[in-house]
Design brief:
Layout: H1 2-20, E1 24-28, E2 32-34, E3 39-45, E4 50-53, E5 60-75, E6 78-91, E7 95-99, E8 103-106, E9 109-112, E10 116-121, H2 132-139, E11 141-147, E12 158-166, E13 171-179, E14 186-191, E15 198-203, E16 206-220, E17 224-228, E18 232-244, E19 250-260, E20 264-268, E21 285-293, E22 297-298, E23 304-314, E24 330-332, E25 336-344, E26 347-360, E27 364-368, E28 372-377, E29 382-387, E30 391-395, H3 403-410, H4 443-471, H5 473-488, H6 490-494, H7 499-518, H8 527-536, H9 541-556, H10 564-585
Parallel strand pairs: 2-10, 22-30
Antiparallel strand pairs: 1-3, 3-6, 4-8, 5-6, 7-10, 8-9, 11-12, 12-16, 13-18, 14-16, 15-16, 17-20, 18-19, 21-23, 23-26, 24-26, 25-26, 27-30, 28-29
Helix pairs in contact: 5-10, 7-9, 7-10, 8-9, 9-10
């Protein structure tokens, strides 16, 4: 009995080992055909490979192909992958013909198919093939990925345009996407195509119609050889058959055909290390840099806005702006980022800026020092640095250190003295001597002597309170949540009881928080995109769900009434969610 169990276990392990091995084989649609028929051969593998080399197909004429199909699916947590190269062959002579070995390189190992023998007979009266419609569809339908630049620099924009070419001999009724490229090593953005247009063009020298299905802008985030995954479509193709209707018109047969754009590779060049400025943060393109102030003359406790702006074309969303500094007498707040960026086939264009709110506290003239911005110019292929002008802030009115002394010194001048000027001064006084009292032993003496002794236990008590406050993690988080709530939810709190005003302010506060924290325009993003962004940043699923539910509550409030209690619950929930997000995003 034990021997039987051992044998069964051995065979199961052997079967699993065989299944996990690389499989590369050749399959033919038939092993016997007439000389006036066609044959389809598929070279199929279960792992992705490179350097595919078909056989010579001696004794056959290649009338179609190669056509490439890719299938990648997950079922019950198990991945199934298949890649197929298909050819359609017309035999040249009768007899037994041998299709030789094809080769593929997978993970550095070369695999070969087994030779396939096919018997070719005399011509048949009615060629049956069974795959004639499929052959016609494959010969006249092609999905192509056109890449603008296969050797870009790091963070240089490239364009991928997917075109579906259709021969005039067939027609396409509809299609659907089977597998979308992931672009895992790129920053990517699809360009909206409002309406598909059929245009005339050429494919391999023959007239074709084509339609642009997708346009994508990619910014490579890694150097070296990168893969652009294929786009796969399932296309319903109407193929003319040999049959005709009673009016003599040809009857069309619909064939479901899978086409793929093929796996494309690009080689990304690193940015030069020579001449790279110390303040370079990854900007690549053609930019203008400017620092400006909303006003340069104001009074103390008034505010001004200093703007650090970069505009032009390039990877605008993928680098940091220079940090503005100011003297200590100017109170400067955290900047708010603004993005005015549009994306087309030339990449990102527009401007990004950070707005600093500055409030002076004293009278005087204060310089905002010059800052520099460096970027890599793709046209000249070298680094460029732009320096801003120094901004002088003139605070005209307000308290000033030593103002009295400076005014007195500035106003000193010679004066003419006259005896008449001092006639009001009394020469005889009635002053009385003060009663002398010794300082030693007075109440001032004992007060000053005892104050340090009383200050010691007071300092110890305050130190312990400070340590307890520092150890109080929950309390510290609660206080931080309160500060965040006051910062982002103050307007919503003011509108408690006013349903429209409250939920508009709440929605704006949630978007402003993510905008300030992640430096992205979330108000222009869908909830699904916000969900993906937060999950990518490491936020747990429950917190993301609470955040999305708050946004949905703001949307539903436009159509359904809400009580004050409900608004208070949503406000408390917003405080809790912002606190949790800040903790997780701040890691």
């Amino acid at each position: 009995m034990k021997l039987k169990l051992i044998l069964i276990s051995f065979f199961l392990c052997a079967a699993n080992l065989v299944q996990s091995q690389v499989r590369f084989e050749a399959k033919v649609s038939k092993d016997k055909l007439g000389i006036n028929e066609r044959l389809r051969i598929d070279f199929e593998m279960n792992e992705d490979g490179d350097n595919f080399r078909p056989p010579s197909f001696e004794g056959f004429t290649v009338v179609g192909g190669p056509n490439q199909a890719v299938s990648n699916s997950w079922i019950n947590g198990k991945r199934t992958y298949s890649k197929t190269y298909s050819y359609f062959l017309q035999p040249e002579e009768r007899g037994t013909q041998t299709i030789g070995q094809a080769e593929i390189t997978i993970d550095g190992t070369v695999y070969k198919t087994s030779p396939v023998d096919v018997q070719v007979t005399a011509a048949v009266d009615r060629p049956t093939g069974g795959n004639d419609s499929d052959i016609v569809a494959s010969e006249n339908l092609h999905l192509v990925a056109e890449i603008s630049n296969t050797n870009p620099y790091l963070n240089e924009a490239i364009t991928v345009v997917y075109k579906l070419y259709v021969s005039p001999r067939i027609s396409v009724s509809n299609w659907r996407e089977l597998d979308n490229p992931k672009y895992s090593d790129f920053w990517s953005q699809n360009i909206d195509i409002k309406q598909l247009r059929v245009e005339n063009g050429e494919y391999e020298g023959e007239p074709y119609r084509y339609v642009v299905l997708r346009k994508t802008i990619l910014y490579p985030q890694k150097t070296g050889e990168l893969d652009i995954e294929p786009l796969a479509l399932s296309v319903a193709v109407d193929v003319p058959s040999e049959r005709r209707d009673i009016f003599g018109s040809r009857i069309y047969k619909t064939v479901n055909k899978t086409v793929a754009a093929g796996n494309r590779k690009i080689r990304v060049k690193p940015l030069p290390a020579t001449g790279r400025p110390a303040d370079f943060t990854g900007a690549v393109g053609d930019f203008e840099f400017n620092v400006k102030a909303s006003k340069t003359e104001l009074e103390a406790n008034e505010s001004l806005t200093a703007t650090v702006e970069v505009k032009g074309s390039g990877n605008l969303k993928l680098f940091d702006l220079p940090v503005l500094t100011a003297p200590s007498s100017l109170e400067m707040y955290e900047p708010e980022r603004e993005e005015n960026v549009r994306t087309n086939l030339n990449g990102m264009q527009g401007s990004i800026s950070e707005n600093y709110t500055i409030v002076p506290s004293r009278k005087g003239k204060y310089p905002i020092p010059s800052v520099s911005f460096s970027y890599f110019d793709l046209e000249d292929e070298k680094y460029k640095t732009v320096n801003s002008e120094e901004i002088l802030i003139d605070v005209e009115q307000g308290p000033s250190m030593g103002a009295g002394q400076r005014d007195l010194a500035a106003s000193k001048k010679g004066v003419d003295l006259s005896a008449e000027q001092f006639r009001y001064i009394k020469l005889n006084t009635n002053l009385k001597p003060l009663q002398q009292q010794a300082f030693l032993g007075s109440w001032e003496f004992w007060t000053l002597l005892g104050f340090p002794l009383l200050a010691i236990p007071l300092a110890i008590l305050l130190g312990r309170k400070r340590e307890e406050r520092a150890r109080d993690v929950v309390g510290r988080r609660s206080r931080k949540a309160d500060r965040l709530a006051r910062k982002y939810l103050s307007e919503a709190r003011k509108n408690l009881g006013d349903q429209t005003g409250f939920y508009e302010a709440l929605e704006r506060a949630m978007h402003n928080y993510l905008k300030a924290k992640l430096h992205i325009q979330t108000s222009e993003m869908s909830k699904e995109r916000i969900r993906e962004t937060l999950i990518d940043k490491g936020v747990d699923q429950s917190t993301v769900s609470e955040f999305i539910s708050l946004l949905e509550s703001c949307e539903f409030a436009r159509y359904t009434p809400a009580s004050t209690a409900t608004m208070q619950q949503d406000y408390d929930k917003a405080v809790r969610v912002i606190s949790t997000l800040d903790k997780q995003l701040g890691k």
